[in-house]
């Protein structure tokens, strides 16, 4: 039985219980009619109790989940506050490393092919960085 789809099939409400009249027989109320009515009341109370138990368990589970998520949020906020926010610095560092790598490739690549001597054109390429 899915808890989300449970429905109440309550046959009696408080007014119906209060207003119920039993037929009079020679020695009082009809015992069979009283028993039948009490059986309906018992079934309704069982339904109410089962639903109350289910809702209490769900409430406890949800409260526990809220507490857990609140703790996670608190930890996340403290970690975020302690962590420096430098997204542009990371990009800048990457750009610097990329430019340095290109510069080294131009400088050392030219010197190796020229026998260790850099030409004037190589110097102008270095200056553009």
TrEMBL record:
Bias (Basic and acidic residues): 119-129
Region entry Disordered, spans: 110-129
Keywords, comma-separated and alphabetical: Cell cycle, Cell division, Cell shape, Coiled coil, Cytoplasm
Domain of life: Bacteria
Pfam families: DivIVA (PF05103)
GO terms, biological process: cell division
InterPro entries for the chain: Cell_cycle_GpsB, DivIVA_domain, DivIVA_fam
Coiled coil: 38-72
Location in the cell: Cytoplasm
Protein purpose: Divisome component that associates with the complex late in its assembly, after the Z-ring is formed, and is dependent on DivIC and PBP2B for its recruitment to the divisome. Together with EzrA, is a key component of the system that regulates PBP1 localization during cell cycle progression. Its main role could be the removal of PBP1 from the cell pole after pole maturation is completed. Also contributes to the recruitment of PBP1 to the division complex. Not essential for septum formation.
Subunit-level organization: Forms polymers through the coiled coil domains. Interacts with PBP1, MreC and EzrA.
Family to which this protein belongs: Belongs to the GpsB family.
Protein name as catalogued: Cell cycle protein GpsB
Source organism of this protein record: Lacticaseibacillus jixianensis
Gene expressing this chain: gpsB
